[in-house]
Amino acid sequence: MAQNRIPQVNELVKREVARVLLREVDFPEGALVTVVRVEAFPNLQGAKVYISVIPEDKAKDALKALQREIFDIQQILNERLRMRPVPKILWVLEKATAEVQRIEELLDQIKEKR
């Protein structure tokens, strides 16, 4: 049972953070923010929440918005999640998504040249 707890916590935190971001946080105009994955610490004191931002040039502003709202987001999670401790959220920008976006752009350019 204990070995299954971390993946379950990861999925639960991911789902709830995504819901909160959808309804509670005002992101820059035209920014699409997605929760990619969550990695909770083994002691459940914290969790890295990986986010992807499209377009990439709005990532910095989106992270600022998340940091501005971190206290409120954490409070909502503390109320919604029926677990103790509720992991403290740390925002991490997902780099792989930007790389995938760049590869797709390059493939589109190749298609157009044919």
Structure characterization notes:
Helices cover 55% and strands 21% of the residues. By secondary structure, the chain is α+β, with helices and mostly antiparallel strands. It has one domain (2-113): K homology (KH) domain (GMP Synthetase, Chain A, domain 3), CATH 3.30.300.20. A 3-stranded mixed β-sheet has the order 1-2-3, with helices on both faces. α1 (2-24) packs across α3 (70-80). It is globular.
Quick summary of this structure?
The chain is of the alpha+beta class and 114 residues long.
Q: Whole-number radius of gyration?
A: 16 Å
Largest β-sheet summary: 3 strands, mixed
Tell me the fraction of residues in β-strands, as a range.
15-25%
Mean pLDDT: 88
| Cα separation of the termini | 55 Å
Unreliably modeled segments: none
**What is the global morphology?**
globular
Number of helices: 4
**Domain unit count:** 1
Could you give the order of strands across the largest sheet?
1-2-3
Approximate helicity band: 55-70%
User: Structural class, from helix and strand content?
Assistant: alpha+beta
Secondary structure: elements and pairs:
Elements: H1 2-24, E1 32-40, E2 46-54, H2 59-68, H3 70-80, E3 88-93, H4 95-113
Parallel strand pairs: 2-3
Antiparallel strand pairs: 1-2
Helix pairs in contact: 1-3
Features:
alpha+beta; GMP Synthetase, Chain A, domain 3; 114 residues; 4 helices
